[in-house]
């Protein structure tokens, strides 16, 4: 059986900068999402249904996309899955694979799709969107000393056997509730699946049948598997309390006046008796917003990414810098929700051009114009701006990762 790998809905970004150890194992997450999920009701298979503002599958992919050790995600879907339902990733490579008629066949397709691209694989049920990062951490850590590892919770309730009437009890000592991701050394679990006959309960069964040792690591109650209709409400509570990552960044920049007949401000050419001086086009508005975004991401400043000592940026249009910062934020999973810019100068007058500036900034920031503020003030003829020696700017931006 050869897996069909379809183009992903986002570009492939290999996470080579995620670790300082170049010889660390490459890790793939294999998300099994080819099932019908009919027991959960709702028409659509459960993995494509919304919960807490996103599809179940998107929540699940996000958990691995933002994990610093995961390099690649393989999403195994049904042959008839519409392309517009397939979620995206921001920082991790995504391979979309067509699955088989059974879960085992789908896992096999996913394993074949990542064979050679990873050393370790984390096999996870798409219907577990609340998997916490510490659970993923524990599985990965255990693979340093074991061929396999899987999270589980100890059984604490009394166990009965019976049909309508209690016919007996089952000792719960040593019993565990299995969860995913179940992690393995990729060549070993691929060989185990090739050798296994039948439909296993999970991948741990396949591994053990092949003689692999599988460590038990702590699971988590939030790692709920959505199975029945009522599970959606519980999953929504779990996901909503995770909260949002909200970042605020500030920027400040100054450029002096020099020869010229206009200044570039927020991507708009404003007529003036002098121009602004700088290594690039000296757009103090765009520079300030760019630094504010880098600041929110804790990624330095413009000079970090575009050194003024590099001649290729001589005279460059500053929208290049802002676009880089915007794309970096998107790659980290952040949405820019608001930008507030203040230009500090006596002249030129900003008011007549503020509307055009807001429109250009909205375009560059990829947000609606109602979330962009451009205003101006003077220093009452005090200081270098008051003496009309240059223009200063300050900005605040808000980034949100849901």
From TrEMBL:
Q: Where is this region: 2-C-methyl-D-erythritol 4-phosphate cytidylyltransferase?
A: 1-246
Q: What is this protein called?
A: Bifunctional enzyme IspD/IspF
Coiled-coil residues are: none
Region (Disordered) residue spans: 1-20
The residues annotated as site (Transition state stabilizer) are: 39, 46, 279, 378
* Residue ranges of the region described as 2-C-methyl-D-erythritol 2,4-cyclodiphosphate synthase: 247-402
The cross-references to HAMAP family, in alphabetical order and at most eight, read: IspD (MF_00108), IspDF (MF_01520), IspF (MF_00107)
Q: Which Pfam families match?
A: IspD (PF01128), YgbB (PF02542)
List the InterPro entries. IspD, IspD/F, IspD/TarI, ISPD_synthase_CS, MECDP_synthase, MECDP_synthase_CS, MECDP_synthase_sf, Nucleotide-diphossugar_trans
What Enzyme Commission number does this protein have? 2.7.7.60, 4.6.1.12
Binding residues for 4-CDP-2-C-methyl-D-erythritol 2-phosphate: 253-255, 279-280, 301-303, 377-380, 384, 387
Q: Tell me its cofactors.
A: a divalent metal cation
Catalyses: 2-C-methyl-D-erythritol 4-phosphate + CTP + H(+) = 4-CDP-2-C-methyl-D-erythritol + diphosphate; 4-CDP-2-C-methyl-D-erythritol 2-phosphate = 2-C-methyl-D-erythritol 2,4-cyclic diphosphate + CMP
């Amino acid at each position: 059986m050869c897996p069909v790998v379809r183009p992903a809905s986002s570009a492939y970004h290999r996470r080579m900068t995620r670790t300082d150890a170049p010889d660390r194992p490459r890790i793939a997450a294999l998300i099994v999402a080819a099932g019908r999920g009919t027991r959960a009701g709702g028409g659509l298979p459960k993995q494509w249904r919304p919960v807490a503002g996103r599809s179940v599958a998107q929540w699940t992919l996000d958990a691995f996309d933002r994990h610093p050790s995961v390099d690649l995600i393989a999403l195994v879907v049904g042959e008839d899955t519409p392309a517009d339902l397939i979620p995206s990733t921001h920082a991790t490579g995504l391979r979309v694979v067509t699955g088989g008629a059974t879960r085992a066949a789908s896992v096999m397709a996913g394993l074949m799709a990542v064979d050679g691209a990873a050393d370790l694989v984390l096999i996870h049920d798409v219907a577990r969107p609340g998997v916490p990062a510490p659970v993923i951490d524990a599985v990965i850590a255990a693979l340093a000393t074991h061929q396999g590892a899987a999270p589980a919770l100890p059984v604490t309730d009394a166990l009965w056997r019976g049909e309508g009437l209690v016919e007996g009890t089952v000792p719960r000592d040593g019993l565990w509730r299995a969860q995913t991701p179940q992690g393995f050394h990729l060549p070993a679990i691929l060989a185990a699946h090739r050798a296994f006959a039948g439909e296993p309960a999970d991948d741990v069964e396949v591994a053990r049948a092949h003689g692999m040792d599988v460590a038990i690591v702590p699971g988590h109650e939030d790692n709920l598997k959505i199975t029945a209709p009522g599970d959606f409400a519980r999953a929504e509570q779990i996901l909503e309390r995770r909260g949002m990552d909200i970042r605020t960044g500030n920027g400040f920049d100054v450029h002096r006046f020099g020869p010229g007949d206009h200044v570039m401000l927020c991507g708009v050419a404003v007529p003036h008796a002098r121009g602004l001086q700088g290594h690039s086009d000296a757009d103090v508005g765009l520079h300030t917003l760019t630094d504010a975004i880098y600041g929110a991401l804790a990624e330095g400043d413009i000079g970090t990414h575009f050194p003024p000592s590099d001649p290729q940026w001589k005279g460059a249009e500053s929208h290049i810098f802002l676009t880089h910062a915007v794309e970096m934020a998107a790659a980290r999973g952040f949405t820019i929700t608001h930008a507030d810019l203040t230009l500090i100068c006596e002249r030129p007058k900003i008011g007549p051009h503020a509307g055009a500036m807001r429109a250009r900034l909205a375009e560059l920031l990829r947000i609606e114009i109602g979330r962009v503020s451009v205003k101006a003030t003077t220093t009452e003829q005090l200081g270098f701006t008051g003496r009309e020696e240059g223009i200063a700017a300050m900005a605040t931006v808000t980034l949100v990762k849901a």
